[in-house]
């Protein structure tokens, strides 16, 4: 196992989101440094710039061309169109976003698109769009989503490749789903990447404590609401750092002179306010067994009746956690790397928050190339194996 | 701009201190317990009101919202089962 040290360029203890996005260099924010050089306008001009950006309207998001290759209930499986030069790597990558957020966070804008970045490097990239659950989806079980839907996506993608396997990347709750699926059905998973994915729920964060209080009646919540409303979940997340909205406002005014920053900020805000409710029965099991009982870590969680043991994961595993992640703290994400049986594991521990660290300019410079290089190295190993035993042609889908 | 920069640094320090303080307050069982009780009471009231409305609606012989949700869910399950069968068929043909 190898572990990358924290990126020392990032400040420890910096507030997440836009407030920290200013980034300090030698005790000065980028804005302060620019002003000192006579290079940066004051907040007055920033506010004018902000108003102009606001008047331009909502930015376009998720613009990397993609085709729907499967649709079922509310979810669909998208394939990003490969680059004109063709594919370089044989094993496709399946991105599994969180169940309660829109998938386009991984394809936010041109230049801020992780999916687009991978396509440009010659990968065959797929993503699950979970869609918005209807009222009737209150009855969707955890097994329906994790085994039936995610399983179908994995099989569909694997069947389209010569290698009949996929590199599986799960982000946030999508990472929990991907991990559980890989542990239960490892056949078609070439590698697992858990990106800020909660695995160990024994942390003493505010939400974990709240769901464990005697007065928090999980059944009453699910029975009354059906799907757990996104507004309730968003309010809970905001309670993790109640000052964030104020800090975000000050941070954006501070950097409003930077058009590129503003474009990214408004795109991210659009995504942050475009949430999805949690299917009721799935939420009930998620909170009861994972949050309260920490069943996944204890080896007591079952998928479609089969006990899920993290030790059953033998494929190459990359765990990515972030130091300033208030939603999935590093101690919740990191333990996966010690639980799997794979001889090929890596833990990438970076500074940054839950979202910013995945889509920021720094992510483009460090996180994205590191993850892509990790998959590419595993593909080269698989290619060497394939030379000895050529595979059958891909199956029609 | 020096005044603004000083204010900004002060704000950052205030924000961090306040966030840390509120984190301690919100994690306190004295806060979390009543918050959970309030949410649970609200949800139970909503569920009771929904049940009463559904009971009245059902007495008219009309399908309730729950009835429709269950029927739609069954249809979605059938769609998924069909997809399962299509996959199995494709696998059998290949073999």
Describe what this molecule looks like in 3D.
The complex is a heterodimer of chains A (397) and B (95). Chain A is 42% helix and 15% strand. Chain A has helices spanning 18-21, 30-36, 43-55, 114-120, 142-159, 173-184, 206-212, 218-225, 230-239, 244-254, 259-272, 280-292, 295-298, 330-333, 336-339, 356-359, 361-388, and strands at residues 2-4, 24-25, 28-29, 66-72, 75-80, 93-96, 125-129, 166-171, 189-195, 302-303, 306-307, 317-322, 345-350. In chain A, the strands form 3 sheets. In chain A, strands 1-13-12-9-8-6-7-5-4 form a 9-stranded mixed β-sheet, with helices on both faces. In chain A, helix 3 packs across helix 11 (259-272). Residues 1-27 and 391-397 of chain A have low confidence and may be disordered. Chain B folds into 2 domains: 1-62; 63-95. Chain B has 3 helices and no strands. The radius of gyration of chain B is 28 Å and the shape is flat. The termini of chain B are far apart.
């Amino acid at each position: 196992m190898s572990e990358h040290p924290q990126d020392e360029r990032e400040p420890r203890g910096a507030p997440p989101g836009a407030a920290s996005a200013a980034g300090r260099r030698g005790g000065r924010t980028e804005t302060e440094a620019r002003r000192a050089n006579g290079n940066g306008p004051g907040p007055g001009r920033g506010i004018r710039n902000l108003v102009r950006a606001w008047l331009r309207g909502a930015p376009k998001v998720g613009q990397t061309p993609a085709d729907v290759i499967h649709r079922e209930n509310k979810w669909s499986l998208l394939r990003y169109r490969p680059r004109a030069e063709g594919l370089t790597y044989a094993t496709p990558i399946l991105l599994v976003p969180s169940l309660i957020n829109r998938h386009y966070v991984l394809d936010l804008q041109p230049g801020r698109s992780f999916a687009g970045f991978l396509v440009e490097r010659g990968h065959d990239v797929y993503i699950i769009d979970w869609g918005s659950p209807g009222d009737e989806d209150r009855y969707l079980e955890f097994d329906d989503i994790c085994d039936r839907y995610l399983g179908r996506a994995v099989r569909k993608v694997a069947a389209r490749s010569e290698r009949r396997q996929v590199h599986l990347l799960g982000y946030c709750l999508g990472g929990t789903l991907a991990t559980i699926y890989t542990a239960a059905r490892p056949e078609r998973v070439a590698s697992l990447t858990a990106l800020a994915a909660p695995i160990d729920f024994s942390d003493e964060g505010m939400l974990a404590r709240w769901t464990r209080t005697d007065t928090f009646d999980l059944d009453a919540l699910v029975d009354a609401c059906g799907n757990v409303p996104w507004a309730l979940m968003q309010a809970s997340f905001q309670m993790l750092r109640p000052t964030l909205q104020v800090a975000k406002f000050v941070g954006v005014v501070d950097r409003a002179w930077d058009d590129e920053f503003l474009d990214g900020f408004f795109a991210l805000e659009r995504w942050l306010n475009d949430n999805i409710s949690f299917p009721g029965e799935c939420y009930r099991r998620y909170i009861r067994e994972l949050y309260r009982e920490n069943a996944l870590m204890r080896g007591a969680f079952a998928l479609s009746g089969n006990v899920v043991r993290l030790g059953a994961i033998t494929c190459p595993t990359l765990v990515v956690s972030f130091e300033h992640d208030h939603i999935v703290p590093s101690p919740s994400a990191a333990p996966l790397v010690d639980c799997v049986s794979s001889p090929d594991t890596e833990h990438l521990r970076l500074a940054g928050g839950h979202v910013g660290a995945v889509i920021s300019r720094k992510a483009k410079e460090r996180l994205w190339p590191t993850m892509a290089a990790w998959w590419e190295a595993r593909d080269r190993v698989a290619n060497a194996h394939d030379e000895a035993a050529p595979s059958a042609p891909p199956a029609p889908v | 701009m020096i005044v603004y920069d000083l204010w900004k640094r002060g704000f950052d320090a205030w924000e961090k201190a306040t966030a840390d303080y509120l984190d301690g307050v919100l994690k306190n069982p004295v806060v979390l317990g009543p918050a959970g009780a309030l949410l649970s009471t609200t949800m139970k009231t909503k569920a009771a009101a929904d049940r009463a409305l559904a009971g009245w609606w059902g007495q008219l012989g009309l399908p309730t919202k729950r009835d429709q949700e269950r029927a739609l869910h069954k249809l979605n399950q059938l769609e998924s089962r069909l997809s399962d069968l299509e996959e199995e068929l494709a696998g059998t043909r290949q073999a």
